[in-house]
């Protein structure tokens, strides 16, 4: 890349978000890191000198507008947006109350929309750029207990496909990178609540035909590739990174 441009990453304190920040920093991007609070980003900003941290609840359109304006006013030209912030409780339909439904849609879908609405016009002014909206294979394959999460992520894919077409003539690519099960610290922590954590991890790994979960760094490398000129003709369609899950459903190798 010639002159460094700014990449905005939402959910940058999370497993995939932090790995993406490290991968994009390696590729020479300047970083604007967004999460619920700047405290959550302290470790990452210490590790990545020059990265700026912004606290923003992405469910709030006014907060997103103010944060995006601050990022645009205070840094170099914007070149990329990666929407990684997300929530996803596993709850059967009977337990999916109004609050869980609304909150999941608010963070995963509306939050992504608000960020796209603020950043795409700026990328247009800059003459192009890339947006990666992190989706999930739950939008493509059924999984019990994921009604709100899957619906929100299906929305993320629809949103990305639409914006990809709407902005294709402006040199802007919009790509819904779509991970399968990924071994983030949060996912690893979840095993500790199971009766047999090792068995829970093994069962989870069997969902993917390659017999293991993706590592956050592998999703981040895909995102960094999508943000690079090497992916110049990739836009719109989901880019699935799931160890074969959405092709085969379960591992036949174990
Ligand atoms: N880990 C997986 O197996 C997996 C699989 C497919 C897709 N994904 C998606 O990848 C993305 C990152 O997942 P992860 O596993 O790294 O999760 P994570 O929980 O480690 O990270 C999510 C981040 O989003 C932030 N966030 C949540 N609500 C927010 C809000 N209202 N405002 C601002 N920030 C908010 C959290 O603080 C957290 O830092 C999510 O969108 C998730 O749905 C994850």
TrEMBL record:
Keywords: Oxidoreductase. Residues 5-175 form the Ketoreductase domain. It comes from the Bacteria. CDD domains: SDR_c (cd05233). One of its GO terms (molecular function) is oxidoreductase activity, acting on the CH-OH group of donors, NAD or NADP as acceptor. The keyword Oxidoreductase applies. Signal peptide: none annotated. One of its GO terms (biological process) is fatty acid elongation. PANTHER family: OXIDOREDUCTASE, SHORT-CHAIN DEHYDROGENASES/REDUCTASES FAMILY MEMBER. Belongs to the short-chain dehydrogenases/reductases (SDR) family. This is SDR family oxidoreductase. It comes from Nakamurella alba.
